[in-house]
Structure formats: C-alpha cells, structure tokens
Amino acid sequence: MQRRILIVEDEAAIREMVSFALSRHGMLGVEASDVRGAQEEIMHAVPDLILLDWMLPGMSGLDFARRLRKEELTRDIPFIMLTARGDEDDRILGLESGADDYLVKPFSTRELIARIQAVLRRSSPAGLDEVVSKGGLKIDLAAHRVYADENPINMGPTEYRLLSFLMTHPERVYSRSQLLDQVWGGDVYVDERTVDVHVRRIRKALEPFERHKYIQTVRGAGYRFSTTL
C-alpha cells in the first residue's frame, strides 16, 4: 500500500521538491501550506506520516504538533519537524512537542527520505501477539495499548516503542546509545538526549498511577525497567 505523507510547509518550492522526492520512492506527498489546510487533509484521509514546518502562518508548527498529540484521531501519527532553527534547545523543544524526529533546513532529499523510512519502520514494527504485565502496568503488544491499573494511558508512538522494549527486557540496564539502536534504529541520526526527552514523557504519562519507579535512571549507565526500588 502506498504511504501517504502530509507535507505542511508554507514555501511552495519546498513542498514541490519533497513531493517529487517522495514520488520517486513510491510514496504519495499531500501538500498543505498552513494548519487549516493540514486539518482538511487529515479529515479527508489520515496520513501515515506528517512533515511539519516549525514556522507557519496563523498557527506555528510547534503549537499544531502539540494539538496533534492531544487529539485521538492524530495522536498516533508520527511526524518529523522541519525547521531552520538548529539550536540544541530548539531541537529539544521540538521533540518535547511530540516530534518523532527533527530535520534542520537546508536538508538533502536523500536524508529526508532516509529519516521518513526510518520513522515509518519504527511506527509499524512487527509486534508480538501477547500482553506483558508488570507491577500494575500492562502493555498489549498486539493492540499497541498501555494500561496502568486497568486505566488506558495515552502515549505517542515513540514512547510506546521505548516502553515496550524496556518492559520486555526488565531489570537490565541499557545505555542511551543502545536504546537508540534498539528503538530508533541504527540508521537514525539523533542525539542521545532524545532518549531523555521520551523517558520524561513516559514518566509524566505514568505519574498518576506509578506505585513503582518503572523506568529508573542508573547514573553513568543509562535506564532500566524495574518494579522494585
């Protein structure tokens, strides 16, 4: 099935360049110049991935990203932030808004396609048909759902993959680089601090139900999943 990629970008030349690159790799690029146009395209057909420019007229891409993660229809759609803002603080801010990846302009279409393919692979892994339960926390690997004390927990796709990996490999410490390889993939070029951002988001989602410190920081080593202190 052809992948549908929504390009939300106010510069027509960039939209056209990206659409052409996507078509050469068997994907369909759908274009929108602002948030309103993006919402119309999403209502017409939910895309497999969104390429989202930070600076948009009307509503910024950053604010739109936060809205995407709050709404049920769009909260599981992976997206890549496209922006000229390359400072570390800006990258962290973009990731904290829910972005699965972050690409600084100007970028090559070759790198963009590689990142899109990597995010799509991460968003639809071959799951196991089973439920894993530990310390009141349950993850349904077939349905891609997380429950704490039987309450459904809303999580973005990257947080889900990170939590499911750690839950299925409990009590073992993984470094940030190991987690990047296992969860993001070895062909993805992201900073190790990306792991910290997603761990914080998982902890925030689980905080109301957390009797245990599920994801523990091991100083100088990395993270582990545990139901014991």
Cα distance, first to last residue?
46 Å
Total domains, how many? Answer: 2
CATH architecture of the largest domain: 3-Layer(aba) Sandwich
Strand percent estimate:
15-25%
Number of strands: 11
Largest sheet: 5 strands, parallel
Please identify the oligomeric state. Answer: single chain
Average pLDDT number:
85
Rg, nearest Å: 18 Å
User: Quick one: CATH superfamily of the largest domain?
Assistant: Response regulator
Give the helices and strands as they follow along the chain.
EHEHEHEHEHEEEEHHHEE
Helix and strand composition category: alpha/beta
Low-confidence stretches: none
Molecular shape: globular
CATH class of the largest domain: Alpha Beta
CATH topology label of the largest domain: Rossmann fold
Notes on the protein architecture:
By secondary structure, the chain is α/β, with parallel strands linked by helices. 40% of the residues lie in helices and 21% in strands. The protein has 8 helices and 11 strands. The strands form 3 sheets. It has a 5-stranded parallel β-sheet, with helices on both faces. A 4-stranded antiparallel β-sheet has the order 6-7-8-9, covered by helices on one side. Strand 3, helix 3 and strand 4 form a beta-alpha-beta unit. The longest helix is centred in the middle third of the chain and has 15 residues. The model has no long low-confidence stretch (mean pLDDT 85).
